[in-house]
């Protein structure tokens, strides 16, 4: 998807079409580099509107001064180009492009190193620079800076599932970007899952704000929200069970849990393909706890409990 500076300017001016707006928002949500470029562009643009133009810009001289500052090791501040309401938009656009180039030079040289927390067949736990502890489920990926800078602590859950135990810091809110969804907290514990674009957030302690497409919902402990791609409304609900904790606790706690739900979680936990062969079995309720058990043992207990047969065929397990 090609997003140029002119299109970004139209978006910031509110002059982009609905289709262009959709393309830009999808582009921004694709990866960290796009978000970084857009946020730099937006900050520079907004700051330039508060100033007044007093003369022509000497781009060569400005770039020379920038290089001198970089070579001297001093802090580099992107030069802003003043603008009045009568200053032609084409000149403003050119100015913003020039300043964006300066910001890119500075960011590429002085920005903090990005880390990647990736799991395959194991659940892993890591501690971030602010003391926040992240437990990542199997087959998941989290990107985060080596050190948090600025007024926000931002990470990116590219895929999979993670449990966040966030170190409190009211001066620096913590943001999780996953898909097109943004999750904002100060200090709390909660679970986030991004499975093929469907995002689920479950809160254990504190308050969590979940936003997408201009919609925001506030979650309290014991509440969850599931966000489908392109969802126009965010609806929160009470969590029906605690099975989502299985990858941290290594327990499957069933409390009047319908069989279809247990099967759903077992398939996820063991990368299996269990099928309920008769629909009348779907809502049979299970009351037990499996602690670090093998899948074969769990299926054996389920079979005895409900008096149903279990057949393994090819890569499937059929309950009937």
Describe the structure.
This protein is of the alpha+beta class and 320 residues long. It folds into 3 domains: 5-110, no CATH class; 114-238, Jelly Rolls (Sandwich), CATH 2.60.120; 243-319, Phage tail protein beta-alpha-beta fold. 32% of the residues lie in helices and 31% in strands. The protein is built from 8 helices and 18 strands. It has helices spanning 5-12, 18-30, 32-48, 59-72, 89-110, 246-249, 259-270, 295-306, and strands at residues 114-118, 124-127, 133-136, 141-145, 153-165, 174-178, 181-185, 189-195, 198-205, 208-212, 215-219, 223-227, 236-238, 251-258, 274-276, 285-291, 310-313, 316-319. Strands 1, 2, 3, 4, 5, 6, 7, 8, 9, 10, 11, 12 and 13 form a 13-stranded mixed beta sheet that branches. It has a 3-stranded mixed beta sheet with strand order 15-18-17. A hairpin with a 7-residue loop joins strand 4 (141-145) and strand 5. Helix 3 (32-48) packs across helix 5 (89-110). The chain is elongated and about 75 Å long. Mean pLDDT is 82; it is low at 51-57 and 78-87.
Rg (C-alpha, Å):
25 Å
User: In whole angstroms, how far apart are the ends?
Assistant: 48 Å
By CATH, the topology of the largest domain is Jelly Rolls
Oligomer: single chain
**What characteristic shape results from the CA principal axes?**
elongated
**Total discrete domains:** 3
- What's the total number of strands? 18
Which ranges are low-confidence, i.e. pLDDT below 50, for 5 or more consecutive residues?
51-57, 78-87
The CATH class assignment of the largest domain is Mainly Beta
SSE order, one letter for each helix or strand: HHHHHEEEEEEEEEEEEEHEHEEHEE
Q: Report the β-strand fraction as a percent range.
A: 25-35%
Helix share bin: 25-40%
- Structural class given helices, strands, pairing? alpha+beta
Sheet with most strands: 13 strands, mixed
The number of helical runs is: 8
CATH architecture of the largest domain: Sandwich
Look at the structure and give the mean pLDDT. 82
């Amino acid at each position: 998807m090609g997003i140029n500076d002119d299109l970004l300017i139209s978006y910031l001016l509110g002059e982009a079409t609905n289709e262009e707006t959709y393309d830009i928002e999808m582009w921004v949500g694709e990866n960290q580099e796009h978000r970084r470029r857009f946020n730099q562009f937006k900050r520079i643009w907004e700051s330039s509107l508060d100033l007044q133009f007093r003369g022509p810009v000497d781009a060569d001289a400005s770039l020379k001064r920038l290089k001198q500052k970089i070579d001297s090791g001093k802090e580099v501040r992107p030069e802003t180009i003043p603008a009045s309401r009568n200053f032609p938009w084409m000149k403003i656009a050119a100015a913003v492009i020039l300043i964006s180039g300066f910001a890119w030079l500075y960011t590429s040289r002085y920005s903090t190193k990005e880390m990647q927390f990736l799991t395959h067949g194991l659940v892993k736990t890591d501690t971030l620079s602010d003391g926040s502890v992240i437990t990542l489920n199997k087959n998941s990926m989290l990107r985060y800076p080596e050190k948090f800078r600025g007024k926000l602590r931002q990470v990116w859950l590219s895929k999979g599932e993670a449990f966040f135990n966030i170190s409190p810091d009211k001066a620096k809110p913590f943001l999780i970007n996953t898909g097109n969804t943004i999750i904002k907290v100060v200090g709390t514990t909660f679970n986030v899952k991004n499975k093929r674009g469907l995002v689920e957030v479950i809160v254990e302690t504190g308050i969590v704000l979940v936003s997408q497409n201009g919609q925001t919902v506030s979650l309290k402990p014991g509440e969850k929200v599931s966000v489908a791609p392109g969802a126009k409304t965010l609806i929160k609900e009470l969590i029906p069970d605690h099975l989502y904790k299985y990858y941290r606790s290594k327990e499957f706690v069933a409390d009047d849990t319908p069989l279809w739900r247990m099967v759903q979680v077992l398939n996820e936990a063991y990368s299996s393909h269990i099928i309920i062969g008769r629909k009348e079995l779907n809502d049979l309720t299970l009351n037990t706890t499996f602690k670090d058990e093998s899948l074969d043992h769990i299926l054996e207990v389920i079979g005895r409990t409900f008096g149903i047969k279990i057949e393994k065929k090819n890569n499937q397990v059929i309950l009937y």
